[in-house]
Amino acid sequence: MLLRSRAAICGAVLALAFSVTVARSEIVAVHSSAVVDAASGDAIVGAASTYNPFRPGWREGGPNTASGERYDPSVWTAAIKTSLRQKFGGVRYGTRPKYALVEAVGKKVIVKINDVGPLTPGRIIDLNERAMRYFDPSLQLGVIYSVIVRPLSGDYWVPGPVG
Prior knowledge:
By secondary structure, the chain is of the alpha+beta class. The chain has helices at residues 2-28, 33-39, 129-135, and strands at 44-50, 77-81, 98-104, 107-117, 123-127, 143-152, 160-161.
């Protein structure tokens, strides 16, 4: 009986610690606009779209990204156009991820660039579903025009909305 009580208390403490860690990571994701603007590289302007290789009928790419990570629709990631690969530090298997500031419709978000691809002409970035929902909550637009993408210097950005 005593062992079960201790196990239950231990489980509750672990659950609480995990929820605090998750909450802290969400809070850290909000950055100062001044810091992000100061760290931004040259702007690339074009259209953004979204993709999810797990959707029925999806014909491009696959579940693994160029960095070796598996596609995850719940994190803040994106694929850039293959011709922009060098501007984002290479984006190759096993290398440190690069980050970008994406601006559109009056909003800003930092995304981890973990994939590249031959995107549809006119498009410069494919946002994963979480990042696209930030700009288009219903995912009805499909494409967002006049998107500004800036490579961020440094390797330790926390992806998420910029406040």
